[in-house]
Each structure stands twice: as C-alpha cells, then as structure tokens.
User: Fold this.
Amino acid sequence: MSEITLTFLIMDGPFEQARTTTAFRMIEAALEKNYNVNVFAYEGAVSLSFALQKPHANSIHGRTFEEEQHPLTKEWIKALQEKAQSKGCKLNWINCGLCVDERGVNEAIEGCRRGGPKDFWQWAQGSNTLVIGTK
Assistant:
C-alpha cells in the first residue's frame, strides 16, 4: 500500500459540469498509481453517491432505457471503490452532512459516509489536497 494520500474536495453535482468527470478521472488515476484517496463531497457533490439515482431512456434521440445506457455517478463511485480494493489502497468518501440534509439525499451507496467540514480539515492537514471548486 502506498504511503501517498491525495485528498479531493468536490462541489459539483451529477451531470452538471465537466469538473465532476475530471475529478473522477483524477481519482481513478491516483488509485491506478496505488495512492490512497480521500474524497470530501461538498454542496451539490453529495448527490454523486445518492443511492436512489435511476437510469433513463432518451426519447429525444429515440433510444430505449437499454440503448441509452445512461451512466450514473453512483456506479462510477462503486467502480472507484472496487478499483481501490483491487489495488490494495484506500478510497475514503465523506459526504458533508449539512449539504446532505439541505438536499434530502440521505441514502448514499455503501462505502460512502456522512461527515463534516472538520473531516476535510483533518484530511487536508495530512495529505496533498486539491479543491475542485465551482465557478
């Protein structure tokens, strides 16, 4: 297991900005290098791990549910968790509890937990940290 830990703070919700996809790619690249990764989901990003996300069809383009294969961020996070496990490194994911409550997205997928800004502060003190803010 690596001694290197990277901490990410992400703020954008699912499907809103390319920053989310970029963050997922950076997290995946860090895991590929066997780095431990902490993710603090803040503001809209707490919806990324929302367990009740559902895929949909695309009637505009005439595609069925099966044809659309709409990616869900909760599935991307599960894939990152599986990658961390297979590489023998850690992926810690905390959703800001205040932000969760504001948005009503209390049901997170397994492996994602509720926390607060203090958790991010503690992580940031002991790791290299990248904040991927909004505009």
